[in-house]
Amino acid sequence: MSHRSAPDPRPGVRRTVMRTLVVLAGMFAFAFALVPLYDVFCQVTGLNGKTSGSAQTLAHDDVDTSRTVTMQFITRGSQGLPWQLESDIRQMRLHPGQREEVRFTFRNLGDQTTRARAVPSVSPAEASLHLRKLACFCFQEQQLAAGEGFEAPLVFQLTRDLPAEIKTVTLVYTLYPVQQAPLARVPAAPISEGDEA
Amino acid sequence: MATHLPPKPAPQYSEATAGGMAGAHHDRPRGLMRWVLTTNHKEIGTLYLIFSLTMFFIGGIFAMVVRAELFQPGLQLVQPEFFNQMTTMHGLIMVFGAVMPAFVGLANWMVPLQVGAPDMALPRLNNFSFWLLPVAFTLLLATLFMPGGGPDFGWTFYAPLSTTYAPPSTTFFIFSLHLAGISSILGAINIIATILNLRAPGMRMMDMPLFVWTWLITAFLLIAVMPVLAGVITMMLLDINFGTSFFNAAGGGDPVLFQHLFWFFGHPEVYIMILPAFGIVSVIIPTFARKRLFGYASMVYATASIAILSFLVWAHHMFIVGLPLVAELFFMYTTMLIAVPTGVKVFNWIATLFQGSITFEPPMLFALAFVVLFTIGGFSGLMLAIAPADFQYHDTYFVVAHFHYVLVPGAVFAIMAGVYYWLPKWTGHYPHLRLAQWHFWLSVIGVNLTFFPMHFSGLAGMPRRIPDYALQFADFNMVTSLGAFLFGASQLLFVAVVILCIRGGEKAPAQAWEGAEDLEWTVPSPAPLHTFDTPPDFKPDQP
Amino acid sequence: MRTMLVWATGALALAGIPQAALANGWNMPVGVTDVSRDIYSLHMVIFWICVVIGVLVFGAMFYSLFRYRRSQGASAAQFHEHTTVEVIWTAIPLLILIGMALPATATLRTMYDASQADLDVMVTGQQWRWRYEYLGEEVAFTSNLGTPREQIAGGDEKGENYLLEVDEPLVLPVGQKVRLLMTSDDVVHSWWVPDLAVKQDAIPGFVNENWVRINEPGIYRGQCAELCGRDHGFMPVVVEAVEPEQFDQWLAQRKEAATQAAMGIDREWGLDELMTRGEKVYGSICASCHQPDGSGSPPTFPALAGNQAMLDERARHIDTVVNGVSGTAMPAFRSTLNPVEIAAVITWERNAWGNETGDIVQPSEIAEQLSE
């Protein structure tokens, strides 16, 4: 096909193809990189009301007594898991900065040993940036034999820099069954041990 | 017919060498194998176009099933699960099987001819990227006959409906989408390599016809976002079959992440379906206005800005998932910004018409209808960009009206305009004028009857993707269904015109349209199988 | 001639919209909240801006098409660029857009302020019903499609509120700020009532919030807006807005009814009364998937009629209904139905459609399982 008087285009074509292939590989990797990036982004911006996956410390010791915030606790079950999760307090009034403790009771109503994980979500989502969990059962999976139950505390602080317009914070725990050994992707933050009081 | 035709310049090549779509060539495999093994850009272009037309009818039949069920309230013809499969398949087939391959087909035929190249840069790869498509879509259609049925989660396949709650056939759906994606990527590489390396000596980037320019930008978009789609569906595959939890809240995943990733692909994808249409229209309007395109450079810059902006607007599809205020504002502003380069394009087309010498051949009719109806789709797009208002529009028939206006009288009309425009070059004959006019007018009436009432039903509160609806939406839906049947039936005319045109008709000269200027009009009609073996001498209009 | 036709059609279409928009049922509802009014006026402002731009742009276009026809002897001019003009028509749209963005931003800010609510309601989407929970009030119930299946299939004449009616509407007080917390048990749903201008996704595992302050008492109807599977189209939302005093009464009645229902748990129930109750529960909750005749639609929704595995394993049958099946569309009815309803529906399933096991599941048995 070539009585072309133009210079041979093949080296150019090869270079173009190589470059596009590099971009392609990069974009494919980028798609997967977006998964952890998204988690980081959520934690930084409070997007989606995700809370930290590991224990945090008190941000500060002083309490802002000038305002009170309502904190609500909601527990939800999910299909396929005969567990019950209840908190001893459904709603409390507190000052930002206060260290608070709420006790949650787990109970396996089924006739088999099962495992589950409580997945937290905070609303409004911005509040999740200001909710520091010192201890939480949600950092790891729980296992309960048939009929067994246990009590675990949630120790938390709403930091003083909670935006003034947020008057009510709702913390929801949804219990999900854990089917098998967790094949799940590596969480953005390491699961820490021994937060259970 | 004759009054609309330009004077016929004498053919520059002898008729004997003519091949193209009409005739066979020497010492090559004959019959079926010729088409299976071909590496010729014209033959592959033809294959793409035939495939696309086939898919257009299959996807169209699915749409007819949907509209027949929605003709009146109540469930008459199909059950909800089958209805969901029909809407899903209609979307998938039209997007990935009809519109995208049609543009690739046009690119295959016309890009080498417009840049003065003898073929695509990578002819064998070209053959492979085409033949992936029939495999992909046979597989996709086969899912309809599998236990549990085919994909029923909408063409946007939001997790977890498409993962945890999906029918067993979803793995095949993912595989077929992977194949279609690879096909698009390979096609895009080929087009980029052709445009960047095989232009005729003397043709600078800013001398390229706009169809070539828009396709170059589209190809870059494909390279950038098809891997993201591949990534998303791979994650789905892992979630479904390997116990990961990318999108499953139970395992620490996030269903909203799916939507972010999907629309990061999805929004550039909708521009992939419209940028080449801009290119076709920008070539046709100057031809039939007999006047150079107004603002060539600003057209190129506008196309590039639209492409860049397309990466910054994805979350406007997600205004109601609970984004923070800052994100809502950001995506609202960037989305509104797209109106600026899009407006520039429309203004340029109109300025091209202004003080032209205009005739109304079938390609021009479709191109003009494109400008008007696409702009209507643009207006509803602007309304949808306003986040608070979108809270009411979102996921209603208003959205369905919007994207069908930009895709049917937008992308599809542009493809038809392109087909009517280049048919003389492909077949050596003009399309039958009367039939083409009938096709045009019936299509325009059908399209508007179908999609205009959807604005009203959407505003009145009808959600999309429902198999049955409340009584107050009944009148709109009946009109819409009648319009859809009319539009669907009129497309048979299109097939008739194309077949008649291949078989005969008034002979077209090399320069089939008087005002046409690009390189493809310097080769005979029909274009011989091999063109520009010796690069043409390209003389730019401007110094 | 053809251009004239296009011109006339276009003009008619443009002239037709505003009049049509006034008529009810053609346009977005003005709604009954301040936010819905804001959104409506925003919508109308953008709409009119688009109409004006449309008239100018299409006017210029059709003028050119008409005036510069070659058949009328027009010959083409030579110009093909004009920097000033191009800058102007880039700048003007930009200014218009800024003009549109300002009010939109203001409305959005209001919509995002859910603080200081008088009442919190948790809304949970479930394939294919809504569950409402009045936080801190111990009142919770599910709201199912109220339209009989016979109307959908075409046997009966369709009622006035076909597909937009439920067995139990969400009752809200007017004039009070109600915070709505949205979540889902299975797939993504979207809770939408056009008159309240609230549309918010309900996402499994995550909680979204929105709020509404209804100005006028009335019944407002909407639907699920996000494709959520088979019966996505049969998942309506009905909100009944009442005066605050009436609301308090209703709430008290609700609590009373819950206590009443709890009382029935301890006594021994007979087969007939359980069957009567069970048939009702089955019809409103289970029939949409497992079909009124228990034939299901395998493989997604197993048949219950003649399902030997289910009939053989009584305990597993109870477990399935109470706790649901993970990774399938079968929800847990533990918190959705009360023990009487669960016992009744299981009894029905074990005795209907020729299943005739004669098996009775007592509410006390279920209650025991739920609380042990």
UniProtKB/TrEMBL annotation, chain A:
One of its GO terms (molecular function) is copper ion binding. GO terms for cellular component: plasma membrane. It is found in: Cell inner membrane. Keywords: Copper, Membrane, Signal-anchor, Transmembrane, Transmembrane helix. Its main location: membrane. The chain crosses the membrane at residues 21-38. It is a single-pass type II membrane protein. InterPro entries: CtaG/Cox11_dom_sf (IPR023471), Cyt_c_oxidase_assmbl_CtaG (IPR007533). It comes from the Bacteria. Exerts its effect at some terminal stage of cytochrome c oxidase synthesis, probably by being involved in the insertion of the copper B into subunit I. Belongs to the COX11/CtaG family. This is Cytochrome c oxidase assembly protein CtaG. It comes from Halomonas cerina. The lineage of its organism: Bacteria, Pseudomonadati, Pseudomonadota, Gammaproteobacteria, Oceanospirillales.
Automatic annotation (TrEMBL), chain B:
GO terms for biological process: electron transport coupled proton transport; oxidative phosphorylation; respiratory electron transport chain. SUPFAM superfamilies: Cytochrome c oxidase subunit I-like (SSF81442). It comes from the Bacteria. It is found in: Cell membrane; Membrane. One of its GO terms (cellular component) is respiratory chain complex IV. Keywords: Cell membrane, Copper, Electron transport, Heme, Iron, Membrane, Metal-binding, Respiratory chain, Translocase, Transmembrane, Transmembrane helix, Transport. PROSITE patterns: COX1, COX1_CUB. Cytochrome c oxidase is the component of the respiratory chain that catalyzes the reduction of oxygen to water. Subunits 1-3 form the functional core of the enzyme complex. CO I is the catalytic subunit of the enzyme. Electrons originating in cytochrome c are transferred via the copper A center of subunit 2 and heme A of subunit 1 to the bimetallic center formed by heme A3 and copper B. Belongs to the heme-copper respiratory oxidase family. NCBIfam families: CtaD_CoxA. This is Cytochrome c oxidase subunit 1. It comes from Halomonas cerina. The lineage of its organism: Bacteria, Pseudomonadati, Pseudomonadota, Gammaproteobacteria, Oceanospirillales.
TrEMBL record, chain C:
It is found in: Cell membrane; Membrane. The keyword Electron transport applies. Residues 273-353 form the Cytochrome c domain. It is a multi-pass membrane protein. It holds the Pfam family COX2_TM. It catalyses: 4 Fe(II)-[cytochrome c] + O2 + 8 H(+)(in) = 4 Fe(III)-[cytochrome c] + 2 H2O + 4 H(+)(out). Binds a copper A center. Its EC number is 7.1.1.9. Keywords: Copper, Electron transport, Heme, Iron, Membrane, Metal-binding, Respiratory chain, Signal, Translocase, Transmembrane, Transmembrane helix, Transport. GO terms for cellular component: plasma membrane. GO terms for molecular function: copper ion binding; cytochrome-c oxidase activity; heme binding; oxidoreductase activity. Subunits I and II form the functional core of the enzyme complex. Electrons originating in cytochrome c are transferred via heme a and Cu(A) to the binuclear center formed by heme a3 and Cu(B). This is Cytochrome c oxidase subunit 2. It comes from Halomonas cerina.
